[in-house]
Write a structure and sequence with these properties.
The structure holds two protein chains of two kinds. Chain A is an alpha+beta fold. Chain A contains ten helices and six strands, in the order αβαβαββαβααβαααα. Chain A is 62% helix and 10% strand. In chain B, the strands form five sheets. In chain B, strands 9, 10, 11, 12, 15 and 16 form a six-stranded antiparallel beta sheet that branches. A four-stranded antiparallel beta sheet of chain B has the order 7-8-2-18. A four-stranded antiparallel beta sheet of chain B has the order 3-4-6-5. Chain B is 52% helix and 19% strand. Classes of the chains: A alpha+beta, B alpha+beta. β5 of chain A pairs antiparallel with β18 of chain B, so a sheet runs across the interface.
């Protein structure tokens, strides 16, 4: 007997409540975007410059004592967060200290770092500093810019690729799903104030790739079924295609999530934010390829008569390459 | 029907075998690393010892020995991003040009009159002539000093730009020459940083130019970014100047063509020096840490013949007057010349410790940086944190792997086992490729591999689901398998090409951790498509040929 995540034969109607699901997506996009605008992201030093120091001590972390020790140094805004992780030993108490970029310095000076370490030694003389990272405001500005360019470029490249392989309606649907995923991910990072650093950009782009992967598989089947069932209503074709690929959609999402969850729990705190973004992206990406990409395709409609070539459409010329 | 030619089979299995052989050294990481180090040491001419021989014999030399480099976040070390102040060099160029300008104008004294150098912003040379009527001639003469720019983009242009207003002649570098100069400055800086890092002998440092004027330096195993910075951040420009006078007031006007520098040890003491040095550190051939006659740490140095002659002549002419040894605009010492120093070697004494004299000797040997650097990014990762990350990553990978294997077996039975074998080969191939291209594995890179594990199954899932569907239409197992592969192909390719596009963009746009991630993701896509399409297929074909089942269950 095989393990089956979904029954072998399904004929669920995915668009019966299309208004509701699309409405929910629009609402979530709105909430996510509003949160992004109002609250903003909790940028790491990669994006706003500054210094982070990781401290490790055998004694429990006392944030107030740490703060008092550092107050005398007058370094401006300091944030101290304790880090928890199941992979830590019992006597391993870790905290992250973040200092904003100092006026006039490109990267934090050695003297400042040493004064911080000396101040922390008054709290616990045996404290160690496993990592010190410092990024100047000049570089961080550029990092934000290249990151934004990377995301936009990736989406644009994908738009072109799908347009060439399918029809423009498919491309619009796929890109709408991508934008949906990216905004929801930014929204959740803003809402939960999880640290947003360079690695998260990598995660965002992977989400773009993954969500697309999912969408393309559904669309591939839609294209095939459109040729097979020329008389069928577009809605039925879409439903049929999603039902046919549903088992694969779940299988792939579950295997990816299995891998990601083990990384989330066991991979250590350094990459937890990164893995969280991916998990969220896989869930949202799977949802969006059905309820956003396909729904938009349904609303836009597709040219059905494949026998007559459409003179205005470039999309068709690569669309028939099977492989 | 289900057929694969003999050649196809050989090619597929051979690819797998080669890939896995390349990955093999990584499973014995420490041993292979010791082997590589020992072999490198023996090649360098280090005398053979039993330990070295044992290390070298620890790994058979006929097997591949390339390893995946571990990134700083896994091994610990320091990372610096430096910006080179390329404009620093322009001033020196102008100073070097001045004697030629003076000479060429002096020869035409009848038309231009007397010539005098004026103060000007850095990178600009201003010359006043006493007979403005002769300006046209002066400009013409100075232009003869211009030489064509040697660079691809600057072809057809000359290196200096001469203009005049009234009685003042202005000379500056052309934009093409500035670009060419910047490029040279960057090359020199890279070379000198490389030499300095090599002097301290750490393993596999990364020293790369980034963009127009930045240098990325990553040194695994070094204690802190601060340590690295003091090694490469010091300009180490050593010059010997005649001393004009000593003063206690830093605001003293040094007078034309003179400079004022503080004493390194005594605050409040300032030396007024002639701006043009007698000799510079560029004319050194060697520098070694030593002890002076009082047992204090010092640095001995040796000039090349040209420097030795200049130094000898100068000291012979100026016995009894002081001269200053200046390092990076600070006077280390200003002794009185007791006698002519003709041997070409000397000793710098100052307030050194053993460490600082050793460091200075290293810096002097490696040469001065042509320009100053500012540090835009500094990261130090302790080795323990790196080890923790490796351990966590390993456990996570194993658990992820096991979970996916079990899940695939439960879902697809025998076919799941085929997919699982392909998955294991896939991870082996990723490591093989990473070792082959000498890529660096970072923590996000491990995440990329884990993600690939999850996604690599996707292609097989697509195929198996398709086979299931084809089986329903009752065409017989062989035909169903074949159709499954055939029809799933377009979806697999489209899906993977789009993901590959994002990986490529990440690689181009990204830096550091993002790039590491994109490499493993991109390679993972390539290997997973290969294993899913060819490796599982060959296994299924071989199984089918042996068993010839009437019905199959996927």
């Amino acid at each position: 007997m095989r393990l089956k995540l979904v029954p072998s034969e399904t004929s669920w109607d995915f668009f019966g409540r299309a208004k509701w699901t699309l409405g929910l997506s629009v609402l979530l996009i709105f909430v996510g975007f509003a949160s992004f605008l109002i609250q903003g992201l909790n940028y790491g030093i990669d994006f706003r410059g500054g210094t982070t120091i990781r401290t490790e001590s055998a004694q429990p972390v006392d944030v107030a004592a740490y703060r008092d020790a550092l107050a005398a140094l007058e370094l401006g805004d300091i944030s101290i967060t304790e880090v928890f992780d199941p992979t830590f030993e019992d006597d391993q108490n870790v905290a992250m200290i973040r200092i904003e970029a100092q006026e006039g310095d490109e990267s934090v000076t050695a003297a400042t770092v040493r004064s911080i370490q000396d101040a922390m030694a008054t709290v616990d003389p045996d404290m160690t500093f496993p990592s010190v990272e410092s990024v100047g405001p000049k570089v961080s500005g550029e990092l934000v810019r290249t990151a934004a360019i990377a995301v936009v470029l990736a989406i644009a490249a994908v738009l072109v690729y799908i347009w060439l392989r399918f029809e423009w309606q498919f491309a619009v649907g796929a890109v709408a799903a991508l934008v949906h995923d990216v905004i929801l991910t930014l929204g959740v990072f803003s809402e939960l104030q999880i640290k947003f650093d360079l690695a998260i950009i990598a995660a965002l782009l992977t989400i773009v790739g993954y969500s697309l992967n999912d969408t393309v598989v559904v669309f591939d089947r839609v294209r095939e079924n459109l040729r097979k069932y020329k008389q069928k209503d577009l809605k039925d074709v879409l439903n049929l295609s999603i039902n046919e690929t549903l088992s694969r959609t779940f299988m792939t999402s579950v295997t990816t999530l299995l891998a990601l969850f083990s990384l989330f729990v066991l991979g250590g705190d350094v990459i937890r934010g990164f893995v969280f973004a991916m998990i969220w992206g896989v869930i949202v990406g799977t949802y969006s390829s059905i309820f956003v990409a396909s729904a938009i395709l349904l609303f836009l409609g597709v040219k059905r008569d494949w026998s007559k070539p459409d003179p205005g459409s470039v999309g068709n010329q690569f669309g028939n390459i099977d492989a | 029907m289900l057929q694969m030619s003999f050649v196809q089979r050989v090619v597929i299995w051979l690819t797998v075998a080669v890939g896995l052989a390349l990955a093999l050294p990584n499973t014995f990481y420490t041993r292979v690393e010791q082997h590589n180090d020992a072999v490198a040491a023996l090649e360098m001419g280090v005398p053979n010892s039993p330990e070295l021989a044992a290390d070298a014999a620890g790994w058979p030399s006929f097997l591949p020995s390339a390893l995946v480099n571990l990134g700083l976040d896994l091994r610990g070390g320091a990372h610096l991003l430096a910006e080179v102040e390329v404009e620093d060099v322009y001033g020196g160029r102008m100073d070097a040009l001045w004697p030629s300008v003076r000479d060429v104008l002096r020869d035409a004294r009848d038309t231009v009159g007397t010539v005098r150098r004026q103060n000007a912003p850095d990178g600009m040379l201003r010359v006043r002539i006493s007979q403005p009527e002769g300006m046209a001639e002066a400009v013409r003469l100075v232009r003869t000093l211009a030489t064509p720019v040697v660079s691809l983009t600057g072809a057809g242009t000359t290196d200096i730009e001469v203009s005049s207003t009234g009685d003042t002649l202005t000379i500056q570098l052309t934009d093409a020459e500035k670009l060419a100069t910047n490029d040279r400055t960057m090359q020199q800086s890279l070379e000198i940083i490389r030499r300095r890092v090599d002097e301290v002998g750490t393993r596999e440092p990364t020293i790369q130019r980034q963009g127009e004027r930045r240098i990325l330096i990553q040194v695994p195993g070094i204690g802190s970014a601060e340590e690295l910075k003091s090694l490469i951040g010091t300009t180490a420009k050593l010059t010997f100047h005649p001393v004009v006078s000593v003063t206690g007031d830093p605001d003293t006007r040094p007078g034309p063509r003179n400079i004022i520098h503080p004493d390194i040890d005594e605050p409040g003491t300032f030396y007024i020096l002639e701006q043009t040095p007698v000799v510079t550190g560029e004319e050194l051939t060697d520098a070694q840490p030593a002890f002076d006659q009082n047992g204090q740490p010092s640095v001995t140095f040796r000039f090349n013949p040209a420097g030795a002659r200049k130094f000898g002549l100068y000291t012979a002419d100026n016995v009894g007057s002081p001269f200053a040894v200046v390092l990076d605009e600070q006077v280390i010492t200003a002794p009185r010349i007791n006698e002519a120093i003709t041997g070409g070697s000397g000793q710098i004494t100052g307030n050194f410790t053993v460490e600082s004299s050793t460091e200075l000797a290293v810096l002097l040997r490696a040469g001065a940086l042509p320009a100053e650097m500012t540090f835009l990014e500094e990261r130090t990762i302790g080795p323990e944190l790196g080890q923790d990350s490796i351990d966590a990553g390993q456990i996570a990978c194993i658990v992820a792997f096991a979970a996916v294997l079990v899940f695939m077996f439960l879902s697809y039975g025998l076919f799941g086992i085929f997919a699982n074998i392909a998955l294991i080969i896939n991870v082996g191939l990723i490591f093989g490729l990473l070792s082959l291209i000498g890529a660096t594995l970072t923590l996000p890179g491990i995440a990329g591999i884990v993600l690939t594990i999850g996604m690599a199954v996707d292609a097989n899932v697509l195929i198996f689901e398709r086979i299931r569907e084809e089986l329903k239409t009752a065409k017989g197992p062989a035909r169903a398998i074949e159709l499954g592969y055939e029809k799933a192909l377009s979806a697999i390719l489209d899906a993977n090409i789009t993901t590959f596009i994002t990986a490529v963009i990440l690689f181009i746009m990204g830096s550091g951790p993002v790039r590491g991630f994109s490499i493993t993701l991109g390679l993972g896509i390539l290997t997973s498509v290969f294993t899913a399409i060819y490796v599982t297929r060959i296994m299924i074909v071989m199984w089918y040929e042996r068993k010839r089942p009437k019905t199959i269950e996927v």
